[in-house]
Model the fold of this input.
Amino acid sequence: RSLFAMLRKELSDEYLAEVGNHLTELKFRKGILLSAELDNHNEGINYMLRKPAKEEPGWFKRVFEKQPSAYTFYIAEGDQAGAQAIADMRRRGISRTAVAIAQAGDHVLSFFRMLRTELAFYVGCLNLHASLSAQNAKICIPLPGSSWRHDLQCRGLYDVCLALQLKGNVVGNEVDARAKDLVVITGANQGGKSTFLRSIGLAQLMMQTGMFVGAEVFEADLCPSLFTHYKRDEDASMRYGKLDEELARLSDIADRIVPNSILLCNESFAATNEREGSEIARQIVSALVEKGIRIFYVTHLYIFAHLLWERAEERTLFLRADRSLDASRTFKMTEGEPLETSYGEDLFHQVFAASTVKCRAEAKQTVYSTNESRNTHD
Done:
């Protein structure tokens, strides 16, 4: 609405007609009218382009009306120096006008470049909407709030990027984190914890840019800034160790983060032993929460998570990646106490089960062959 109102006001028909008239005059089809002054050496200075009279007198007036006194001179056909002097005067006379026109043109082009960039965002939104709709993925218009109570409530929330990659429906989660400053997410390996964390960050960003959200229902408070702290690979420059690199990035975040912001942490401080990592995480999280920062923390640090559980803070929510009895992953987040295990053995059996059975079969075959050889020898 603001865009269309601005276009109607700034680019009215009258304005465009006036611009057209100016551009027609600046083609100088009838020549150029200049004024200038003479300096102490009788050289031309202060050249100025003048606007000609709008109404041209008729032929009768031009013939019989008394003409103003003026000096007129003509350049001979072969006078190259005179032609060069006239061209120089012309250039100096229109230079200021040419600069003004160039600036006006750049201003108009910058407006359309900005408009193209902003329209590209909305075209991207339309393309995303079409892709998700083709996959029958749930989308909704979020309900933003500004109560600063750190409210978040969602149903069927999923990672939009994952949905685009899988070309199908992904598991959504239902979470009620109203009036929660800290959300601790633990549970089974490859249970969807990091994916859920991404879905929270994406939904917050999409909501605050005026977009739809990948969920059935999404309600959350607005935040002034959103930060992420994910674990990274080893520093190739060898400037930092992994723990030093994590602490350096978190220090940069602390310098910029403001109250009511959101911080997403994924496996932070897992580069050291559990006791040391848990103590670092506890101190940093406590300090940030005291400053009004809302934190979503995915962790395998049981000491850290269990310590927070024992405190039983009212404004802390504990979520756990669900695991079925047959060791399969449901990718659902449910409220619950942090467990001491992340069920890493499930992944071991899943990856190495076939290899283990094959190795055992080969070992039995080898023993059988050895015994057979001994019997033959005997």
